[in-house]
Amino acid sequence: MDDHLARLEEELDSFAVQERRRALNALWDLAGEGRVSLPPAGSDVNLHCHTFFSYNAYGYSPSKFAWLARKLGLAVAGIVDFDVLDGLQEFLAAGDLLGMKVSAGLETRVHIPEFADSVINSPGEPGISYHMGVGFPTSELSGESARFLARLREGAEARNRELVGRVNEYLDPVVLDYDADVLPLTPSGNATERHICHGYARKARSVFGSDEEVSGFWAEKLGVDASEQGELEGGTLQPLIRARTMKRGGVGYVQPGSGSFPWLAETNRFILDAGGIPTHTWLDGTSDGESRMEDLLKVVMSTGVAAINVIPDRNYTAGKADRKLENLRRVVALAEELDLLVVAGTEMNKPGQPLVDDFESEELSGLAPIFLGSAHAVYAHSVLERAAGLGYTSEWVEGRFPRRADRKAFFREVGRRLEAGREEVLAGLDAGATPKAVLERLRQ
Questions:
Q1: What is the pLDDT tens value at each position of the chain, 444 positions in all?
Q2: Which of 47, 65, 260, 383 is a plausible cystine mate for 345, CB 3.0–4.6 Å?
C-alpha cells in the first residue's frame, strides 16, 4: 500500500467526522480509478463490531470498519456499540457509498428478574445479562425512546465516575481526572471500562520516570511481574488492570443489583419502539443460566426477543472439538428450532480479535449458512423499517406472517435479493403492501 492510501486509511479513525468523511470519499474515488481492489460480496459476515464510539481495540471508526469490511468482501457488516447509537448514521452512510449491506445496533446490560438467582452471561453477576438491539433504522429518536437512550448513556457515565473514584484511591498516585484523562479518549464522551484502563496505563507512564518504576508499580498493585505485563500501555496490561481493579473481586467492583440496569422488558420496549430487533446475547453455555437455555429463551422471547447473538471466534479452538464448540452448535440448533435469527460476529474490543470469523474452518463451515441467512434478514429489516416501517418486528409483519418461520424466510430472501446501493427500489411502500409486492420491487 502506498503512503497516500495508508494516510487516508489512518484518517478514517480521526475523531473529526468531516475528516473521516473526506477520507472515505477519497478512498472510494481511488477504488473507482482501480487503485484499490474491492472484491464482490462473498458469504462472510460480522454483525457485531464495536467502534470507537464505545471501544474498539484498534481504534476503528464506523467508516474504518465499513471500509475494511468492503475490502474483504463481507456479505453483510454490522456495528454494535455500548449504550449509544452514535455511529449509526455514519455507518449507514458509509454502506450507501460503498455499495455494501450494513446494519447498526447497540449493546447494553439488563436485569432479568426471572433469573435473578442465576449467572447468565455477565460473569459473577446473577440476574444481569448483556443484551442487544440490532438493525435500528435511525438514531434520530424522540419521546420516550430518546429519553431511554439518554438514560443508558447517563447511567454508564455515572457508574464510570464512581468506579474511577474507587480505583483512584487504590492506585494513588496514579489517579485519573475523568473529564481530563478519560473523556478525550472517546469521540463523543461515551467512555467504557476499557477507556478507563487505557487512561490508567497512560497516566502511570506520566507519573513515573522509567519503565522499571512503571513495571514495579503495576507489579505491586496488580500482583503480576514484568513478564506478564507486556507493553506498559498495551493490550496485555490493560485487561489486567480491568480484571484486578474493576471486575469481581477488584477494589473498584460493586456487585450490581436489580436496580443497577434497566429490566429486560423495558429495554425491549425501547428497542421495538425505536425500530430494532431485540437480541439476546449468548456467551458460551457454561453458566447456570445458560445451562437452562430453553427456559431462558422462553423468558426473553416473551418480552420480544427475535434473535440471539453469538461470538463464534471465542467459542472454539481450531482442530479441537471441545465443550464450547459443542455448546455453540447446540445453541444455534435451538435457535433454529425456535425460528430465531442468529446474529454472529467478532467484537474487536480486545487486541487479537479478527475482523471476521474463519467461516471456512471445519468448526464453523456448517454454521456459516445460518449466520449468512440471519445477516441478510437483519439487513432487510433495517432497509424495510427505514423505508416504510415494515421491519421484522413491525405490526405489518405480525399481520402478514403469524408464523416466525415464514417471517424469517421472507426477510432472508429480501436481504439476499436486494442489491446493495439499490435500496431505493423499496421506497414508497406502505402498510398496505403485500409480501409479494415487496418481492416484485426487487425485480425492477
A1: 588 999 999 999 999 999 999 999 999 999 999 999 999 999 999 999 999 999 999 999 999 999 999 999 999 999 999 999 999 999 999 999 999 999 999 999 999 999 999 999 999 999 999 999 999 999 999 999 999 999 999 999 999 999 999 999 999 999 999 999 999 999 999 999 999 999 999 999 899 978 889 889 999 999 887 666 666 666 678 888 999 999 988 999 899 887 899 999 999 999 999 999 999 999 999 999 999 999 999 999 999 999 999 999 989 888 877 899 999 999 999 999 999 999 999 999 988 899 999 999 999 999 999 999 999 999 999 999 999 999 999 999 999 999 999 999 999 999 999 999 999 999 999 999 999 999 999 986
A2: 47
Judged by DSSP in three states, 45 sits in: strand
Q: Which domains does the chain have, with CATH numbers?
A: 1-37 (no CATH), 38-141+274-441 (3.20.20.140), 152-245 (no CATH)
CA distances from 202 to 60, 121, 187, 431 (A): 20, 30, 18, 54
